[in-house]
Specification:
Elements: H1 8-11, E1 14-17, H2 33-46, E2 50-53, H3 81-93, E3 97-102, H4 112-119, E4 131-132, E5 153-156, E6 161-164, H5 179-194, E7 199-202, H6 244-256, E8 262-265, H7 271-274, E9 287-288, H8 292-295, H9 300-313, E10 321-323, H10 332-336, H11 338-350, E11 354-358, H12 378-382, H13 425-429, H14 435-448, H15 450-454, E12 456-460, E13 466-473, E14 476-483, E15 489-491, E16 500-505, E17 514-515, E18 519-521, E19 526-531
Parallel strand pairs: 1-2, 1-11, 2-3, 3-7, 7-8, 8-9, 10-11
Antiparallel strand pairs: 4-6, 5-6, 12-13, 13-14, 14-19, 15-18, 16-17, 16-19
The structure holds 1-deoxynojirimycin (NOJ).
1-deoxynojirimycin (NOJ) is lined by residues 63, 66, 103, 167, 203-204, 266, 327-328.
Length: 537
């Protein structure tokens, strides 16, 4: 892959906005669409190309919007459909694409479809959800577990059957073997595509189809104490069924009806199974999210191995992508530490493929500990005390040093990080050596250097804490050297090339420093090295 691709979603940098926590415009302590609009110039200046909004649709908020009661509206908490149109228009005017979260696996139990479905066994929408008779002893139909604790089956007393919910019992799963369900969701997609959205991030796409016979899942032989209870069984029959690929291809056909749009899939699977979601002839998702960096051990060899495995597993012509954080996982700055968060940023923005940033990672936001009375996440409430809570990575964006960090004029729905008075956009922007300045420099370089976007990825042998690779395009290579450890390290390899110089260090110094065959790195330092007099772009 040596040529520069033209698709915006391949060239671009994606940024996840968690709307509740980005910018509040009406002083209710919760972010909203009008707030996001006011922050678009910030995203444009940062160099972002596309924003993905977590759900903004009407919802009882049992799972903060991932329980939708109306797929084609906007929850009043976030604004109105007019606000949404204004957001798309304003984003597009600034050259930013808008990606919506599509949650097709389950609705809210307050969705009119489910209210109808549960009303009687012979309701026309009964088959839109997954209803099963109790076992002879009255128990749940099988051993499947909810990801948020307990059985995945809830008995409806009125009609005497159980319904399946992979998550909360307020989130009943739709029956994706039912053609009407498929068409209803495809129409939802068309509704938003007509409004100008540029694509979808599809929630738990690998969950959509379940085993037709609802067989029991096998036990997980690798389960370890302290892990959430649903991990005691594997999801062999409840997720990643062969027929799901037909659904993904159908969704892709819907987005393709509208030209250059993108279909992104949320998928937590081993790399080999993940890449199947590109589909036959790449007619599936253009970007099955690659979450390998979210759970890897942060060591040079582990990361090197993941990159190699992913590059090798990609089907011919499939476009890679990388993610460092999202609203379900601990913040990267807390996972790897503040010093390594800079190295992680350089990794994310120099790997082959589309990077997706999580809001606030560019200012080094870290996990915020929640006191018991501050916990909002239903996962933590249902499965307390083992650290599954997701509130800590969803705290308000830190814009400035004013009392509520510029996020709101009243108390935010989740507490702010205690260090926001100096760790905020205004302060970090004024500091030439801050992580925000590093993100800007990295994004700037990525926009100038074709090597960093579509250049070939060439691993280089390295030891210890060093991760080394080249990115080559148009006959020109860059070397990326990342020190994943705290001790200094040096690279004596002449393969770096004589007459090279440092284009960027994660410390934001050493610019244009010449490298004559030996390259010394400080602890926690990453550098991008290119030929001297290298003419960018
Ligand atoms: C995946 C979403 O990312 C997560 O936040 C949500 O809780 C589950 N899907 C259930 O919708």
């Amino acid at each position: 892959m040596d040529q520069i691709s033209n698709s915006w979603w391949q060239n671009g940098i994606f940024y996840q906005v968690y709307p509740r926590s980005f910018q509040d415009s009406n002083a209710d302590g919760v972010g909203d669409l009008a707030g996001i609009i006011t922050r678009l110039p910030y995203l444009q200046e940062l160099g972002i190309d596309a924003i993905w909004l977590s759900p903004v649709f009407p919802s009882p908020m049992a799972d903060f919007g991932y329980d939708i009661s109306d797929y084609t509206g906007i929850d009043p908490l976030f604004g109105t459909l007019e606000d949404f149109d204004a957001l798309v228009e304003a984003a597009h005017a600034l050259g930013l694409k808008v990606i919506l979260d599509l949650v097709p696996n389950h609705t809210s139990d307050q969705h009119p479809w489910f209210i109808e479905s549960r009303s009687s066994r012979d309701n026309p929408k009964r088959d839109w959800y997954l209803w099963r008779d109790p076992k002879p002893d009255g128990g749940a139909p099988n051993n499947w577990l909810s990801e948020f604790g307990g059985s995945a089956w809830t008995l409806d007393d009125e009609t005497g059957q159980y319904y399946y919910h992979a998550f909360l019992n307020q989130q009943p799963d739709l029956n994706w073997r039912n053609r009407e369900v498929r068409e209803a969701i495809y129409d939802v997609m068309r509704f938003w595509l007509r409004k100008g959205v540029d694509g979808f991030r599809v929630d738990v796409i690998w969950h959509l189809i379940k085993d037709a016979q609802f067989r029991d899942n096998p036990p997980n032989p690798y389960y370890s104490e302290g892990r959430p209870p649903h991990e005691t069984i594997l999801t062999q029959y409840s997720t990643d069924q062969p027929e799901v690929h037909e659904v993904v291809a159908e969704m892709r056909r819907v987005t393709d009806e509208f030209g250059s749009r993108v279909l992104i899939g949320e998928i937590y699977l081993p790399l080999q199974r993940l890449v199947a979601y590109y589909g036959n002839d790449l007619a599936g998702a253009q970007m099955p999210f690659n979450f390998a960096l979210l759970s890897t051990l942060w060591s040079a060899r582990s990361v090197e191995k993941i990159i190699a495995e992913y590059e090798a597993a990609l089907p011919h012509g499939a476009w890679p992508n990388w993610v460092l954080g999202n609203h379900d996982r601990p913040r990267v700055a807390s996972r790897v530490g503040q010093a390594q968060a800079r190295v992680a940023a350089m990794l994310l923005l120099t790997l082959r493929g589309t990077p997706t940033l999580y809001y606030g990672d560019e200012i080094g936001m870290h996990q915020v500990a929640m006191a018991p009375d501050q916990v909002r996440d239903p996962f933590e409430k249902n499965v307390p005390g083992i650290g599954v809570g997701r509130d800590g990575c969803r705290t308000p964006m830190q814009w400035d040093a004013t009392p509520h960090a510029g996020f709101s004029t009243s108390t935010p729905w989740l507490p702010l990080a205690s260090d926001f008075a100096h760790e905020n956009v205004i302060d970090l922007d004024a500091d030439d050596h801050s992580i925000l300045s590093l993100y800007k420099a990295l994004i700037g370089l990525r926009k100038q250097l074709p090597q960093l976007v579509a250049g070939a990825y060439e691993p280089m042998a390295a030891q210890g804490d060093l991760l080394l690779y080249r990115r080559r395009a148009e006959g020109e290579a860059l070397v990326i050297a990342l020190n994943l450890g705290a001790e200094p390290a040096s690279i004596t390899s002449s393969s770096i090339g004589f007459g090279s110089e440092i284009l960027l260090s994660t410390f934001l110094d050493r610019k244009r420093e010449r490298v004559e065959g030996i390259l010394n790195l400080r602890g926690n330092e990453g550098v991008i090295v290119g030929r001297s007099n290298f003419q960018a772009g």
